Amino acid sequence: xxRILIGELWKHVGETVSISGWVDVRRDxxxxxxxxxxxxxGKVQGVVLPASAAIExxxxxxxxxxxxxxxxxxxxxxxxxxxxxxxGDIELDITAIEILAEAAPLPFDMSMSGFNLDLTTQLxxxxxxxxxxxxxxxxxxxxxxxxxxxxxxxSQDFFEFQAPAITPGVAEGGAEVFxxxxxxxxxxxxxxxxxxxxxxxxxxxxxxxxxKIFRAEPSATTRHxxxxxxxxxxxxFIDTWEDVRDMSEATVRHILNEVGKHCKAxxxxxxxxxxxxxxxxxxxxxxxxxxxxGVSANKDLTPEQERRLCEIIKxxxxxxxxxxxxxxxxxxxxxxxxxxxxxxxxxxxxxLCRGVEWLSGGRRINxxxxxxxHVREWGMDPNKISMFLEAFKYGVPPEGGFxxxxxxxxxxxxxxxxxxEASMFPRDMNRIDTLLSAEEPRNE
RNA sequence: GCGGUCGUAGCUUAGCUGGCCAAAAGCGUCUCCCUGUCACGGAGAAGAACGUGGGUUCAAAUCCCAUCGACCGCGCCA
Length: 444
What we know:
- By secondary structure, this protein is of the alpha+beta class.
- It is built from twelve helices and 18 strands.
- It has helices at residues 55-60, 119-124, 126-129, 133-155, 194-204, 241-262, 264-269, 286-293, 303-317, 368-377, 386-391, 406-413; strands spanning 16-28, 33-39, 42-48, 66-75, 90-101, 159-160, 166-167, 179-182, 185-189, 206-214, 227-236, 283-285, 321-325, 338-339, 342-346, 348-353, 356-364, 399-405.
- A hairpin with a 2-residue loop joins strand 8 and strand 9 (185-189).
- Helix 4 (133-155) packs across helix 6 (241-262) and helix 4 crosses helix 12.
- Residues 440-444 have low confidence and may be disordered.
- The protein binds one RNA strand through residues 25, 27-34, 36, 45, 47, 49-50, 62-63, 77, 79-80, 82, 85, 88, 91, 105-114, 116-121, 172, 174-176, 191-192, 194, 213, 215, 217-222, 224, 230, 302-304, 332-333, 335-336, 348, 360-361, 403, 418, 430.
């Protein structure tokens, strides 16, 4: 008999059907046994009555067994209807259960309310934890975030490209990188597609990429990973840095709208609401930000100040978001565009929300000569980034771009306490899945 | 990396101003009972050298030191 998805069962009331899935919960009443079955489309209750041919096997089946179940889809009697629950008005009157695979006793409670684990326990048993609706909800939202970023970029005529993960050097300096053995040379895992995306932009005008980046920062915080998905964009023919900001704002707005549209159930399950993005997100220069905070100016906001600034902006404007722009030129990478009126400060920007940086970007230097002088001032060797520099020799218009961290955005949208929750297989200073360290078989 | 907190059954935790702890509870597991449950319910059982090593003491889960690990904060961070 053809498999029917649990989510489609309501269309088959009165029919004998076959479903396949996992045993979500077993409730043994003695003479009769109730089950909740789960597949990718949802859950449904099944009942094995005393007279059913399946009663013997029903006694053996345990939670998380993979099973194929045959039965009649029945309307539930009025008094047994569970309102507000998927398939709460129907149940499967089971005639046969086939065990497809048994499950060992579970290492932790998988029930909705009992799922209260140390993150460490959850990550050590990632395969099982991924079956839990709360965990699945996180990654469904992350899917929508990444999809909608891509969608919006394409709708704005951005061209997607693949940035390399193995890079020959550390053009930007600053962040720590992972070194890899590259035949007889040293190479590094990419900490950013930045230089590549600017190169590609010089040819395609508007480009974006969705790719992994790697950082060897010894950062043990709730918001740092060593391997993250970076959502990157770069666009040419801008007039001012505000054009970059507006594009990034529209992108984030689209992502939030899509999450709101497609993830209602997930947001409800995770007991969170989307941050508010008002018609025009407030922008403050770093100097103004320090004034608003009533503290003396510094090179950057501390995490505490970021949180406070977000609170103040929320109170004043209702916006959960705030742009901060105009950082000290020398504290940022060489390619960031200095404000022509005040070259001590640049036209780089960060978007903060709920106390954490979501996005950073800004206008870049597009004139070759200016880039060259920055490269020298920053103490870099022009020969080592000549491929990048050459791209700016041949008529590159004013341009800029931005980048978002997918995990951090997922964490912040869902108000998760730790970014590791927003990464399926998080990498941090200590965790690298040593439980999966056997040599992998070769793919053909 | 620095600072703080923590490490007790498969999971989540209580105990931690030393003796009443050869360690307790809830969930899970196993056995038995239960015809309408939906986190089913009821009765019982098994399950822990209290992270590891050393020390203090008549006596250590409890105090001290070291070590490993975790969590949080800071720093660092396109």
